[in-house]
Amino acid sequence: MKASLAIRATQSMVLTPQLLQSIRLLQLSTLELEQEIEQALEDNVMLEADETYEAADESTITPGPAVAIETESVPEAATGCDAGVHSEVEADFDWSSSESWSGGEPADEDDEPWTSRTAAPTSGDARVGALEQLRMMVRTRRESAIVTAIVENIDDNGYLECPLGEIGSQLGDDFDATSTELEAALTMVQSVEPTGFGARNLVECLRLQLEILPGSTPGRELALYLVANGLELVAERRLDQVRRELHASEAEMKAAFNLVLALDPKPGASQGAPAEAAIPDVIVSGRPGAWRVELNTERLPRIRVNGSYERAIATSAHRALKDKLQEARWLVRGLEMRHETLLKTARAVFERQKGFLEHGEERMVPLTLREIADAIGMHESTVCRVTTAKFIQTPWGVYDFKSFFPSQITGSDIEASGTAVKAMIRRIVDSENRLNPLCDGAIGALLLRQGIRVARRTVAKYREAMKIAPATARRTAPVRRGQLVQVG
């Protein structure tokens, strides 16, 4: 055999930089889009803020069959962009140029994307925070390798479920860590914040949190005994047995019980990323029969191509300026397409969720991405992107766009969604007799009377998702005659 050269003609589908940029703009949240536009205004002289922006007329949903909104019917002013670029955006442009945008991420003179110059967001992972603290505590490279291996085996809830011997084998023969070294390293890991991180089970997690409290803390010693010997009794609220065995007073038992309840059973999960403000991208208002669906014009990017520069370089042969002009046109057109798609999708969704607008979550019907994609003539992936990290302001509050695509409850006599069933369970619990609360089976029987067939375990799953306590914990003791009730 010998090497040879051959020429073959093949066909393949390639995403153009223009399409990549449009896809990227679709899935950006409002805050991310604002940052993108601010950076684009700084980098591209052909763009300018549109201070003459005026709000557009809203789209109105009237009674009748669901009809997808047409692109041409969307007021151009609703996007806050210059509509004059539509006829010019198809001009010849060499997207292989080193100065082109390359999918919407501009590069500086050193070919370094602008995102590399922004500060990295603070990680919400407790493992990352633990490693940062341990970096100041370890003294040798061997010690560092052992604690790093332990931290890497801790799950998202902050528990070390992997045995120390197995972690030692992961380090290899080069380290050959002894059990004493592994135990010492685990003790070091468990000393960092959050307290309880690195525990091997729930008892150890709670014990670590109690041991750091001052010895004078009321109920501390009794709480340590409850954690070590009576967690089942605490969960079932059967503390009289422990109180009699230890000859403890009712006040001491109550202090210990409240102390155990205040502990964090999942120290790793509580270190999530800080919550961000939910800025609505779409606003739904009006009244039954005439609902208005409109974009949040206060937060829409208001940019356009600089007309003076555009006319000045119309006859210029400067390649770099022409590339910048074409980048500006594509960005404006990409924003136009993003907002048109968002408005079309929102209108199609609320054509099917009119019951929610009029009656709340109990009337939210099942909906899939495919249904909306077929209604607006787009692919499911496009609908998925345009509904990601977007929020809708409705008469019932601000909702995540994804929440309007609930799953369907199978086996029911009527069409019901998981969101509607949750709302019904919440209403049933709120209106129950506190002296005799309903168990999950009784709640399922009440739902069956309305034609919704759900299993008891499904009711329990939805109840736990809404952080509603079981019936035994919701029961309120009756007030006896002559008994004083403390209010507050």
From TrEMBL:
<dbReference type="GO" id="GO:0006352">
    <property type="term" value="P:DNA-templated transcription initiation"/>
</dbReference>
<dbReference type="Pfam" id="PF00309">
    <property type="entry name" value="Sigma54_AID"/>
</dbReference>
<protein>
    <recommendedName>
        <fullName>RNA polymerase sigma-54 factor</fullName>
    </recommendedName>
</protein>
<keyword id="KW-0805">Transcription regulation</keyword>
<dbReference type="GO" id="GO:0003677">
    <property type="term" value="F:DNA binding"/>
</dbReference>
<keyword id="KW-0240">DNA-directed RNA polymerase</keyword>
<feature type="domain" description="RNA polymerase sigma factor 54 core-binding">
    <location>
        <begin position="131"/>
        <end position="309"/>
    </location>
</feature>
<feature type="compositionally biased region" description="Low complexity">
    <location>
        <begin position="95"/>
        <end position="105"/>
    </location>
</feature>
<dbReference type="InterPro" id="IPR038709">
    <property type="entry name" value="RpoN_core-bd_sf"/>
</dbReference>
<keyword id="KW-0238">DNA-binding</keyword>
<feature type="coiled-coil region">
    <location>
        <begin position="23"/>
        <end position="50"/>
    </location>
</feature>
<keyword id="KW-0548">Nucleotidyltransferase</keyword>
<dbReference type="GO" id="GO:0000428">
    <property type="term" value="C:DNA-directed RNA polymerase complex"/>
</dbReference>
<dbReference type="InterPro" id="IPR007634">
    <property type="entry name" value="RNA_pol_sigma_54_DNA-bd"/>
</dbReference>
<keyword id="KW-0808">Transferase</keyword>
<dbReference type="GO" id="GO:0001216">
    <property type="term" value="F:DNA-binding transcription activator activity"/>
</dbReference>
<dbReference type="InterPro" id="IPR000394">
    <property type="entry name" value="RNA_pol_sigma_54"/>
</dbReference>
<feature type="domain" description="RNA polymerase sigma factor 54 DNA-binding">
    <location>
        <begin position="320"/>
        <end position="475"/>
    </location>
</feature>
<keyword id="KW-0731">Sigma factor</keyword>
<comment type="function">
    <text>Sigma factors are initiation factors that promote the attachment of RNA polymerase to specific initiation sites and are then released.</text>
</comment>
<dbReference type="GO" id="GO:0016779">
    <property type="term" value="F:nucleotidyltransferase activity"/>
</dbReference>
<keyword id="KW-0804">Transcription</keyword>
<dbReference type="Pfam" id="PF04963">
    <property type="entry name" value="Sigma54_CBD"/>
</dbReference>
<feature type="coiled-coil region">
    <location>
        <begin position="232"/>
        <end position="259"/>
    </location>
</feature>
<dbReference type="Pfam" id="PF04552">
    <property type="entry name" value="Sigma54_DBD"/>
</dbReference>
<dbReference type="InterPro" id="IPR007046">
    <property type="entry name" value="RNA_pol_sigma_54_core-bd"/>
</dbReference>
<keyword id="KW-0175">Coiled coil</keyword>
<dbReference type="GO" id="GO:0016987">
    <property type="term" value="F:sigma factor activity"/>
</dbReference>
<comment type="similarity">
    <text>Belongs to the sigma-54 factor family.</text>
</comment>
<feature type="region of interest" description="Disordered">
    <location>
        <begin position="94"/>
        <end position="126"/>
    </location>
</feature>
